[in-house]
Amino acid sequence: MDALMCPVQCQPGTAGEALTPKFGLSPTFGGLKKLGVGIQLYLSALVFLKGVPLCESTPAESVFMFSFSSSFRVNLQRVRLCPPFLWGAIALAAPCIAAPLAPVQQATQIRIDASTPYSVPGTAAYDESYGTAPSGSTLGLNSRYLTLNGQPWLPAMGEFHFSRYPRSQWEEEILKMKAAGVDIVATYVLWIHHEEIRGQFDWAGERDLRAFARLCARHHLYMVARIGPWDHAEARNGGLPDWVLKQGPTRVNDPAYLASVRIWYGQIARQLTGLLWKDGGPVIGIQLENEYSTRGPSAGAAHILMLKKLAVRSGLQVPLYFVTGWDNAVIPPRAVLPIYGGGYPDAPWDRSIRKLPPQDTYAFRFYSRVSPNARPTTRAGDPPSTVPYLTAEIGGGIEDTYHRRPVMHPGDIAAMFPIMLGSGINLYGTYMFQGGENPDGKITTLQESQQTGYPNDVPIKSYDFQAPLGEFGQERASFRKLKVFQDFLDDFGADLAPMIVHPPEVLPKDSRDLTTPRAAVRSRGDSGFIFFGNYVRNYAMPPRPATQFLIDLPGGTLAVPERPIDLPSGAYFIWPFNFRMGSVNLRYSTAQLFTRLTSRAQTTYYFEAIPGVPVEFAFNEANLRSICAPGAEQSRAGGVIYVNAIDPGLQSSIDLTAADGKAIRIVVLTAEQVEDAWKVRIDGSDHLLMTAQEFFADPDSSRPHIWLRSNGSSHFAFTIMPPVAKPLQANLPLTQTATSDAETSFAAEAPERHIELTCRQTKTASQAPPVHLGPEFNSVAQAPPAGELPSAARWSITIPPGSLAGLSNLFLKVQYQGDVARFYSGSRLLTDDFYNGRPWSIGLRRFLDASGGGSFDLSILPLRRDAPVYFELPAPLDFPPQGQIDALDKITLIPQYQLVLSAEDQ
């Protein structure tokens, strides 16, 4: 049956109405086509006038042949022209071709062979146990992916170190992670945080592992405990207490070490009693050790197997036991699963104080799970085919070290997502997802330092990591960008997980090759997804003119898009092809699939328009009864209906009626709108809430709540799609600003707060001492020691009582220039910062006294011109004649307002 296409009125009409022809010509050939037309017209005129002879030329004379495929063809077969008349033809044709021929860019054709028949995954090379919960729910795996209740499962995992965050604020951050599509919370259990002094275990307050796991359970998030004993995590001794180091060898099967580990594991097991998957709890996995590559007697596989035996005997019995799979790791087969790192956007542990080459994490990994530079002939690096490709550490940011201070941008984080998915991963683990700060140590500071034998110095307190959720819970732009991909996994991960990876015909030489396009396909039969990355941090990738993906599938070759399009520098995306939307087949789209909402009336699919990329949808006509796309252009060729010239936004829609009568709607949103859109459940139905304000929700409470937070502005605005059936209640007066059948918009105003802080300088800086290099094994710039910095300038800051009244938080924004800044309450260091050119934002809620006020001190150590430190500053610092800089440019208070929404009581 022909689909009815109604471009404006959305009224039934004659099959094929408003269809324009599709020639399938690449824009690259547009100028040649016009040239051929001009010459053909000119020659016809010559013959008609019979006054101009065609040459009987010799082989040395010019021969022109033009041939164009598809429904338009110009063919001058071996027409021989005398040179004077040839140039006349070209001159007459010139007006037709001037624009297309200047300049000519080479087309980008990316061919990917995905024609191999689909192979069913085999049994995983892993001894599964403890995979069934009391409810009957099952967790398992095969050689390709994880399964949940027997169905493919591709979860997103985010790292959150509970002992580095105030317990009173855990729940908010867990809800933020859940709102962003995180399924599994991973957390290091850092031994030194809990038994810094031998025999004195501390599981209270922010160290309460049991309370943290119960919160994950309450909000239906799974949990992976990374129990060490050695964790790293930029912690002192990698997380081992000092006394453990003093008693003898570590990370081997030494009797004294194992005896201490047995006690440590037993303590963790008691904390998690009743909270493991087999007991109906959230803990589905345990990671043993970290980055372990030691070989030799009492080490290697024997040590990992011993750690697993100790964990199981202690009661830590879970379905999934992990060890990290990079750094030449030890992975005893069948006993543990390798969990890989996807890499980080920079390498602050690198000794260099210069811009680094392009990082591996922006390049697909087709022949190795640890490096994109392995080639098909590299047998040793081939990924194992007997266990799924799982990751724990794809950089959600980076912790600045003293000698290297890179600055993260949102795309630096988000651009890795399609690269890693396109490489075949079936567990996307972000490290860190939530930043934090080190708790106070009893006898030591708890951070990694060169003084403790480690290669880097990190801040004493701050573990912000420039993460999607910052040290003080700030929702950064990367948080929203990751949410877009994680919502995609939440709705469509089960489709993606079984799919097989296919590399392009032409591969980049290595991760430094910025010329060759980077793409991949994952497919199952004729359906799948295209993954494309044209973004590399700190490097400008070239635009890809006239790009077309040619995918060889079992059912034939698919061209995406039908006519080549330009892809800009910096673009990264996931495009579906032969994607089933109910009974409708979406042949392809050049917009990224985001999420879907289902109601009794219809299913709505939301897509993201990739900035700089024209949006086109192609549908198999045989699956459609009718199609309406107001304002868009529609055409048909070869049994395919094309919809393009779509203007993304809330009002964009393609309404489909499938052959079986089911209604489907497609809405194409801008990138900004998708990042502002959050899935919420109100009155038992799903909605999208769109807001520029910070967002999180608690859908699991008896009366679901939604929180919006606004930094600096007391104004709130949001839109709900589709409209809710019952009125919303709020802690602030709500005003309905617009409404339609598709959405309703609201606004609210909080009472504006103007809070005056008092800031006075109490000490000026003196000459900073030269920056020393650390021990010879690394020899990089060494951070100043803990405690008072004699050369630092100092300011006293007073926050008046009642400052938090009516606010969710109050941020101190410190704009300064210097080397190291520290923030104190009396003699207690609260947090600190290595200067990297960005304003330093401090959330005061956790530091203010019961009255909502407080007195603090800020110190700034001058930065010396000769400091051997790497910066990524927008402009060079203007050092004064004395060769050092310390300046408090501006300090302000930023109130964070809050709007709390809930549905009307039933």
Characteristic terms for this protein:
4 domains; beta-galactosidase, domain 2; 15% helix; 906 residues; 32% strand; 52 strands; alpha+beta; eight-stranded antiparallel sheet; eight-stranded parallel barrel; TIM Barrel
How many domains? 4
The CATH homology group name of the largest domain: Glycosidases
In the predicted model, the low-confidence regions spanning at least 5 consecutive residues are 7-104, 378-382
State the total count of DSSP E strands.
52
Query: What do we call the CATH topology of the largest domain?
Result: TIM Barrel
CATH architectural designation of the largest domain: Alpha-Beta Barrel
Mean pLDDT: 89
Oligomer class: single chain
Strand order of the largest sheet: 8-9-10-11-12-13-14-16
Based on CA atoms alone, the radius of gyration comes out at: 31 Å
Number of helices, counting only DSSP H or I runs of 4 residues or more? 12
The chain-level structural class is alpha+beta
